[in-house]
Design brief:
By secondary structure, the protein is α/β, with parallel strands linked by helices. Helices cover 32% and strands 22% of the residues. It has helices spanning 78-94, 114-119, 131-139, 151-159, 179-189, 203-208, 225-233, 267-278, 284-310, 322-331, 363-368, 382-388, and strands spanning 15-23, 30-31, 42-48, 55-57, 103-106, 124-128, 144-146, 164-170, 190-201, 221-222, 237-245, 251-258, 315-318, 341-342, 351-352, 360-361, 373-376, 398-401, 407-408. It binds zinc ion.
Length: 409
């Protein structure tokens, strides 16, 4: 077996963080018409670098264009739009943004965030690789360039007069294959006193809560503050503030600037770095024990589901999404253990989950099966789902979550 190298520091990757075996791409739902065809599967193996502690997926070979089929579903959740609007209000006030400033967002999607700067009369530019999505942003009045972001793109944008007072990049850092070229782009793009922000799921929460099901193929890096600060440091950028947010099971919003900029470091930076050290993130053992915890969750879940099957209970699941697909494929749970997965999305109903081939049904069809147990796959929404599906209590039905540990309630 060939060994990969770390995408941040180039060291050889020798240590497993989580080996989830072979898995199909998370959103490759199988239409019934294709049920008799095969599926592509790829290794889903996260490593930790023993030198810089970046947790990352090993490079794997895919056929050309496997990620090019970008399905655009307009409309973010109300809570996510509130999060964006709040970001705009806070940044505008804190950094004194106005008509003479420029905000650039990388992976700006359909302009859902930048639209709030536009409403305040603050000049913006979106950078978005998917042309169909960028078109939606332009139509709603958010100037958007179709480009992949990196140093070369940043040089071009600055030459065209787009040097930035503020840059935003939310939930994209983990998804870029060349993380060094990506962060180097911000060194070029930011004005001397400009501020950059990144939001990403916090590795510390993933480790504490054993959220291994957030590992999927398009998610290349799993990030701590320590690692992000070191990667930024490679291009003479420094972190001066950090905030914790509950989004995606626990996220960080990191603020950074040029080394020479005037922004004063807040005490939050050292506080969160200390929390990461206390959580074991500055030693290899803190990462490698995760691999064992993942196996323990698989064993406990299978034991419980096999026992329920032997008792003749009806078990179904809720939430046909990336998390559930990772979890069910890794555990090897098919329709023999979980009869169906309910999901509200009409695009998914009537299909089969990739790999494990469990039928996706509407919540109404699922309730008609009178399940004895409902396995809630999106553990971050367990209270919400249990509230919406409370009807199963009428016949004595119960809920199950498997992460961070098996729980029946
Ligand atoms: Zn490394």
């Amino acid at each position: 077996m060939t060994t990969g190298t770390c995408r941040a520091c180039g060291a050889t990757l020798k240590h497993t963080f989580a080996d989830l075996g072979l898995s199909p791409l998370a959103n490759a739902y199988v239409p019934l018409a294709k049920a008799r065809e095969g599926e592509m599967v790829f290794p889903l193996h996260a490593h930790v670098c023993e030198t810089c502690f970046l947790v990352q997926l090993e490079e794997f070979e895919t056929p050309e264009n496997i990620f090019s089929d970008y399905a655009y579903f307009s409309g973010f959740s109300t809570s996510w739009l509130h999060h964006a609007e709040d970001y705009v209000a806070t940044m505008t006030q804190r950094f004194g943004l106005g008509p003479d400033k420029k905000v650039v967002e990388v992976a700006s999607n359909d302009g859902y965030l930048l639209q709030y700067f536009v409403k305040r009369g603050i000049p913006v530019l979106g950078v978005e690789p998917a042309a169909n999505v960028a078109k939606v942003a332009v139509e709603r009045g958010v100037p958007t360039e179709v480009a992949f972001f990196g140093e070369a793109t940043a040089l071009r944008l600055v030459a065209e007069g787009h040097a930035a007072d503020l840059t935003a990049a939310n939930n994209v850092l983990a998804h870029v294959p060349d993380i060094l070229d990506f962060t180097a782009g911000f060194k070029v793009l930011l004005k001397p006193d400009g501020v950059g922000t990144f939001e990403f799921p916090h590795l510390l929460r993933m480790v504490e809560q054993k959220q291994f099901d957030t590992i999927y193929h398009e998610h290349f890096s799993y990030l701590s503050l320590k690692v992000v600060a070191e990667i930024l440091g490679k291009t003479d950028l420094r972190v001066f503030d950090v905030e914790e947010w509950p989004t995606h099971g626990g996220s960080l919003r990191v603020f950074f600037c040029h080394d020479a900029a005037a922004h004063q470091a807040t005490s939050s930076v050292e506080r969160i770095l200390a929390e990461e050290r206390a959580g074991g993130l500055s030693e290899l053992a803190g990462y490698t024990r995760f691999a064992e915890e993942v196996v323990a969750i698989k064993c406990a879940t299978l034991k419980a589901l096999i026992a329920l099957r032997e008792e003749g209970k009806v078990v179904v699941a809720y939430g046909a999404a990336a998390k559930g697909n990772t979890f069910l494929n890794y555990c090897g749970i098919g329709p023999e253990l979980v009869r169906a997965v309910a999901d509200r999305s009409p695009h998914k109903q009537g299909t089969l989950l990739p790999g494990v081939r469990i039928p996706v049904v509407s919540p109404e069809e699922m309730l008609a099966m009178k399940p004895d147990y409902l396995l809630i796959l999106p553990w971050n929404l367990k209270d919400e789902v249990a509230g919406q599906m409370v009807e199963i209590r009428a016949w004595g039905g119960k809920f199950i979550t498997a992460i961070p540990k098996l729980s029946v309630f």
